[in-house]
Queue: 3 jobs
Job 1
Amino acid sequence: MDPDRLAPDEVAGNVDRYMGTFRAQRKWVVKVALLGLWLYPLRFLKPTFPRMKREARREFVEKRFVRDIAYGRVHFARRLIQAMFRLSSQMAYLGYYGDPKTFDSVGYRPFSQRDRFDDELREVPGTLPRLDCMSHAELNGDTVEADAVVVGSGAAGAIVAYRLAEAGRRVLILERGLHLHPSEFEEDEVRQISNLYADGALQLSRDFSFQVLQGMCVGGSTVVNNAVCFDLPEDVLRRWNGSEHEAGLHEAKLAESFAGVRRWLGIGKPPSPHLQRGADKFVEGAEALGLTGPPNEVDVVAANISNCPGSGYCNIGCPYGTKLSMLDKVLPEGQERFGAESLRILPECRAERIETSNGRAEAVLARLSDGRRLRVKANTVVVSAGAIASSWLLMESKIAKGRAGRDVCFNMGSPITADFDDVLDSFDGVQISHYLQPEAGSGFVMESWFNPVVSQALNMPGWLDDHRENMRRFRHLTAAGVLVGTKGTARLRPALTGGVDIDYTPAREDVETLVNALKLLCRIYLKAGARRVMPSTFRFHAFTEESQVDRLDEYVKNTSYLSIGSGHPQGGNALSGEPGRGVVDPTFRVHGFENLFVC
């Protein structure tokens, strides 16, 4: 970072603004991390961090954080100290690269400054469909009634609510996050992240080593995802319906549902005429290694994206309405067809507990963002708040005791960043455009991937000078991620500070699958002519030759040495025809209840 370009107090001010713009139970984690960084030198009989001279601070960080952690010299509270350093560093990246004054130092150009942006595109956000959401001022008293209440407005909740309204029911959707119209979306990544993500993208596992990204806004994660759509693999469906789970899913009806949603959301290929150039390198390398033919599959992704201008803003909210999210398509179409009174949406309303009696859900007890309590009475209750929040709502309601919140799993991901001689400007174009799917049973998939400058800085390998030099190569970089479908080893527990903790240690088998796939991805990029490839290991490594790639096994002793996370939490409310083995039955009804569903 260049203090002459952006002074340290300006960076700190940007971090303060970020911390002040979102409400999150986990906000304290960053405050504790920064306080820990401030006090940590006292352990070594050094002055507190701010009182050190700049040179001494630099030396301390290199020795006590980078080298001690990377070489395993820290044993007591290692993960906590590592998380403290990582979070503090990421706050600095966010505060620095989130400021437009730094963009030219890496060659980043916001979409509005790119050549193909014109006045016509500028006018698009204001013309997009608008949702009629309930304001808190409209609520008279502390009770609201509906035929059906749906908790969550994302992929499941919005479609369920639409179908219920289509069947003549008066539906009320409760959404914990904000409602923002696409015309209110900004190019400011930091503001968008704080507005649209759960916990401002600070949702972490109990030991702070695993980040779980989820949308929290009207439209849910569909507003901030890459819209990539895969059908359920046949071998997975067979396993679910087999003796292990006895899910009892009707295969023909499920296939019909997939096809129906594909038609409805216009899912197709390609997602955009503007596919970022970095993805071409991914395809070239896969072809050179002979990975594009059976049993492997390399292709452009299918997505619910239409006529995308390639802003690269998929993960911070598309202001152009070309990602056909629940915010842009399903919910507005529902209100247009059935009326806003039949499909009501109440944002900034957190469902806290389900009130039950004699095998029925009587009401959802909720809290508004202004602190008021609300009781929502309904004949049907549908919980569609995502794997984490849905499980936690059942747990808090003492429903499915001992079963809800267990066997949580993820698509666990980690990227490889590749540096080429060519100028790629991978930030310019749709964020995920290609995938590699190996033969069934391999346990992973690869996706090409890149971000605007802040998000890419947060995911950039290396610390200090390594990080700075890698960011200077921003225009020459591309990346892809490996996603591994994990075993259900995670469990949700009450956090000591309130709310929910994600207790998760990846299974060794899943880690091995991830590392082997990352090595293959390194080879793909090297075969495509990359001058170096960089895994997201805590200790920075860059491989320049294929013969070096197998060293990744040595560098990743366990997942604490590798940056991992997920945007795809799953499970927590297992589906099974056997009440003792699952939370919901094959109709998605919670076992033991007439009118309570999880979808």
Job 2
Amino acid sequence: MTLAKTVKIGHRDIDVPVTIIDQIVNFVDPIRGAERYRSRVRMAISGGYTGADRTRRANQSGSRREMDPDSAILPDLPTLRDESQHLVRNNAIAGGAIRTNITKVVGTGLKVKSQLDREVLNLTDEQADTWERNAEREFRLATETREIDAERQLPFSLLQGLAFLKVLEDGDVLVNMPRLKRPGSPYSLKLQLIESARICNPNQKPDTATLSGGVEKDATTGATVAYHVLNQHPGNFRVYGKKNFTWSTLPAFGKTSGAPLSTLLFDKTRPGQTRGVPYLAPVVELLKQLGRYTDAEVMAAVVSGMFTVFVTNETGNPAIGPATTMDNPDGDPSLQVDTTGLELGYGSVVGLMPGEKVESTNPGRPNTAFDPFVQAILRQIGVALELPFELLIKHFTASYSAARAALEEAWDYFSRRRHWLVTMLCQPVYEAVITEAVATGRLQAPGFFSDPLIRKAWLSTTWTGDAPSQLDPKKEIEAAKSRVELRISTRSEECARLTGGDWEAKMPQIIKEEKLLRKNGLLLEPPAANTPPPAPDNTGGSDLEGLDNATD
């Protein structure tokens, strides 16, 4: 007969049978029988992963349980923001990592190039080119002045960097897009950046299924409906004690158009996630410990450099009495000094009281193991932040191939971040500006408001930013030339890759310079008509051949 006992493990009930052999062992030796049964229970509750085996010592420390995104993030978010802000202000590695992200991802600002879907719109190349230039011109008019900023301080190119900074430092930032008419600007669209700490539940209400962290969501789909914003920063100590807090509700989307009216920028890593996590969150503790260790090593090196000595005596009390020095050879009491603060001088001879002796200390600093240890920690930090070690500390000492590999690896991360910024911020702002331009008649776009497909065709774009760093520009140019000649890349793509510019926009200036050089006799004239053409070039030629003829 086989019996069974039910063992409750977490939320599960597991039946572990008691066999006939178990009963016999229990009858002969109850202690061994109990140990045998416990071993069988452990085997029953364990799966195929040792990482889930709680009987192993490595898995017994700390608390670990599965939580939904908001339960895992929201309780710790204020503390993580405080720690992140403190590190960015006071820790060189943390501040450098954040600024590196901004420089490489945003740089001088991401720039738009209109790319109409000409097949859908049934436009000729000339019509499409003209409309694209006009659209880009209108977008620059609306965004490249300080009028786009609700605070009237930054153009859109710099607002991109500020928004990205707050996402990295605080985890998220709210971008409100109010309509404010101001003199001198034909566009009413404005951008207002609202810090993360101001987004919270009204009157500090507890989180619910439809209201978490100041974000109101649809009960059925979980889609964002509105944001609740405090009228001032909770850390504003000038008015904090007055308790005059009020909340505003900012709708996320327009009721009729469905266009975004405000959006919370954050890097979403889990379905159902409401708020973002600071970029430095995985390495906060490591950065703080490394900062403390660095401070201790620096202080030890300073102490070692000062060559501190200690004066000891039989009583252990500070030595106070008439000092016998070269300035006071007779120990005159009128010249008595306090020797608790004796300082070493150049070639000085210091007299001591009876029973006193001098002991020196040698901290052994600078510590020769300091740099290798710090580098090992920085490599771990770089892995968590997706920044190669060389780029994290701005120090390239390895070979060209290793340095290039590090930059290529970093650029993969920066490209993903740039795509995120374009999708979440830049493109919605462009669409809002062009929509307003069409609505007010500044741009003509037939079918824009009648068909979503046509509207999408009018709003198609590409965005470019600053070019990646180049270790050897000559090699980079040769590689770009080869890609163009092999027809696996275009001049526009290579121009964006090498300089971050727009090749098509540069063409009028290139033609102008060619004409000017020829006019001044600095370019050779093209061969005469009866001159035999040169031998074909096996390298594939270039599309710029014949430019001189085309520009005459």
Job 3
Amino acid sequence: MTSVAAVDSAALLKQHFGFDVFKPGQQAVIDHLLAGRSAAAVFPTGGGKSVCYQLPAMALPGVTLVVSPLIALMKDQIDALAARGIAAIRLDSTLDADGYRDAMDRIRRGEVRLLYVAPERFANERFRQVLGQLRVSLFAIDEAHCISEWGHNFRPDYLKLAGFARDAKAERVLALTATATDKVLRDIRQVFDIAPECAIRTGFYRPNLTLLLTPVERRERDAQLLARLRQREPGPAIVYVTLQKTAERVARDLAAAGFDAHAYHAGMKPEKRTEVQDRFIQSDCGVVVATIAFGMGIDKADIRSVYHYNLPKSLESYSQEIGRAGRDGEPAICETFACPDDLGALENFAYGDTPTLDAVHAMIRDVFSQGVSFDLSHHTLASTHDLRMLVARTLLTYLELLGHLEGGTPFYATYRFRPLIPSKDILATFQGDRREFLTALFKQADKAKVWFDVDVDVAARNLSTSRERIIAALDYLGEKQMLIVEAAGVRHRYRVLEQPQDLAALAKKLHDRTLNREASEVQRLQQVVDLVELDGCQVAALGAYFGDHCEPCGHCSWCLSGRKPAKLAARPEVPIDDGIWGQLEPLRRSHPEILSDPRAVARLLCGISTPWLTQAKLTRDPLFARLEDAPFATVLREAESRSAAAMMG
């Protein structure tokens, strides 16, 4: 491993980023990396995590690979790096064919210092082939808390990143996050083999942020938000909401009131999201009303206020989102409108991911009937067994962690290409074996109207060659702009390491993990409520949650109110009409395979969609979401009670 400890990091900071001094923690992290050691950086939002990999990229040979789930972060950082003359590119789902081809050409020519990718990019076998040809001096993982089941945003793709780093022969690893409790940080260190002394955590406390947690009732929330925006110092503001439809409505209302307000959420087209983001970054008084899809990695220092129109789903989410305010060090206000009506929708996010025990049992029975080595589509597996995609992937990851399965390199099931020049002209540019190979390959393709489809595995068998050679050939022709090449149908390879002795017991074990995860997510929401009602400094309590000791701050709701705790209004009671169960019976009789489990019934009534409910068009039934404002746990208990009574009767 190359050590470049003699590099003057302070000079690089001044030369490339224009800063005279490092922010707290930055130099320690960078020194570890330049000395050849892996490191972790737990800095608050706005604490300067990106410099910890961008600066070493200027000193290290080869490429720095940055893994992030946030397209907004990639775009924002690459634009800023380009303005500084630093060569950086991204590979993400927004690139068109020309953009992807140009990016791959630049990577192969060694012109790129920083390469940004999403975790899902490692499912692309063409990318994995290219990565194997690069010298990866630094493998940086943003949002590293996603590797931990104890984190607030567990993503199974992240658990495999350590293996991808080893496959890429990465010389050092950097794990970055703004939200890691001590338990989560231990997980990060263990997965990425980071020594305790190389894990740098900086203080949570930011004296320029005023934290207000204001109990409100639903009917007064819109007026309160409007009043705050009118009364306070004008400046850029973010309003966070839970649902996409709420973002649209609140943005529309604020625009009608004269504010430069726009909605931002994952349901919008990418170009529209980009337009809203770019407009906001350039604005000195714009308002973005957004789901949590907005703000991650946005480098806008002058945000004067962050409002939570709806309660955040966890203390981790809250700390990340308020951290986007006042990054220039000037005063900023972060106010949460704490409304008990929000709790049902937020709880449903947790409850909606929990499968039934029967669904888990059916899934693993399917998986272990495939043979010793097999491949499958995550999408097909999820929809077949009424699981959300993330849940299916998480269960497969659990099977890997328990030693039952070993995951292999994902691959695309089908490729198709469209010639940009006549095939005879393509073949005329090659001679000998290469020409013969391409001639034979083209004969393996089935022509539709414009596109040619090729089953790579069948073609490889027929031509007595490897699928890697076929993919490399198609990729090469695509780069030379002779073909447009598209791949589809990702399939994931697995090998059975240990056949379970008792499938029912294993299903119960996995289902219990999903129930524990559900309880943990509901508890995280309760921690937000507890912070609102805390009889103590809310800033100090938030700091303590993240392992930082703070004295009473003087600028949170508790401190500013004369140290008086607030009280959230009582959660509204939603009566469950007995007549609903009578209306449900015909539906259960006509769909016994879907509505036999009380949890499935509760999901229908609370408006939580699943693959089977969608496929059977039950999401259009009048009973769907009939009890969406009722606590899911209450509806589930009632469904279980009635199911038990029916069995007894």
